[in-house]
Specification:
alpha+beta, six-stranded antiparallel beta sheet, 46% helix, Beta-Lactamase, Arc Repressor Mutant, subunit A, 11 helices
């Protein structure tokens, strides 16, 4: 007589998978989604019973790898998972070829280059290669810079959905950092939409007066942007017009760095 699998059989089968492996698999699927998810959203991808999914989500939330969204139902990546991602990208075996690409870029352009990743409220510098010039802008690895007035930050904002971008622009404190900072949400939105189309972003003295920057996205295997590569320099040495001439070289570095992902 053919046995028909019941919910109890499915639960017993999945319970045989080590808990640590189930947690890692679940976290991997959440990261793949790239947006807040409900436990039931992953039932097909994981083959886990609903009760098990809810229990694993609660475990990951309790340990800080997930955090609940304001709706009280969906979850997104938590602080410990983000710290793990940063630590993983900072491991020496990944940094060695990455820094080599960045040093070659900085040498060719003659300006400081940085690799940044988006956190919940700002861009965070993961790596920097300083120019050899004495006149330069210095930020330490781990420094946070705003989304709305930096090249990498605006590039990140361009990846948000229209609804999330609207919510950000409506609520963010668009402080006037320099005379060139875009503080009008409508003007900033127009620029961000242009960035979506052109695939790169420019900071025209919007964050620091007398400093410009150009940024391009790194793309992972899912087409998402986990990080940005940028160069910046003082207007006393590099103009916006000159900066545009370096875009092909910046794009090549972005493609090389994306391949490492």
């Amino acid at each position: 007589m053919k046995h028909i699998e019941t919910d109890q059989d499915e639960t017993a089968r999945t319970e045989r998978i080590p808990t640590t492996l189930r947690l890692l698999t679940l976290l991997e699927e959440i990261v793949k989604k790239g947006q807040p998810v409900l436990p039931t959203d992953l039932s097909g991808a994981t083959d886990l019973p609903k009760a098990t999914l809810h229990r694993l989500f609660q475990t990951l939330e309790g340990e800080g790898y997930l955090q609940r969204e304001p709706d009280g139902r969906s979850y997104s990546v938590g602080p410990r998972a983000r710290q793990l991602a940063v630590a993983t990208m900072s491991t020496m075996r990944m940094r060695t070829p990455r820094l080599a690409i960045m040093r070659a870029l900085a040498k060719d352009i003659g300006e400081t280059c940085n690799l940044a990743i988006p956190d919940r409220e700002a861009m965070v510098y993961l790596d920097r290669v300083e120019t050899e010039w004495h006149l330069r802008v210095q930020f330490s690895v781990g420094a946070h810079v705003p989304f709305y007035c930096t090249a990498g930050g605006k590039l990140y904002l361009s990846t948000l959905s229209d609804a999330r971008l609207y919510s950000y622009l409506r609520n963010a404190d668009l402080a006037q950092m320099t005379p060139a900072t875009l503080t009008d949400p409508r003007a900033l939105r127009a620029e961000i939409l242009q960035i979506r189309d052109q695939g790169f972003a420019v900071d025209n003295e919007e964050f620091l007066e007398g400093v410009i920057a150009f940024a391009m996205p790194l793309r992972d295997q899912y087409g998402r942007m986990p990080a940005t590569i940028a160069f910046q320099g003082p207007t006393q040495r590099i103009s916006i017009k000159q900066g545009y001439t370096h875009l092909p070289r910046l794009k090549r570095a972005a493609e090389e760095l994306s391949a490492l992902l």
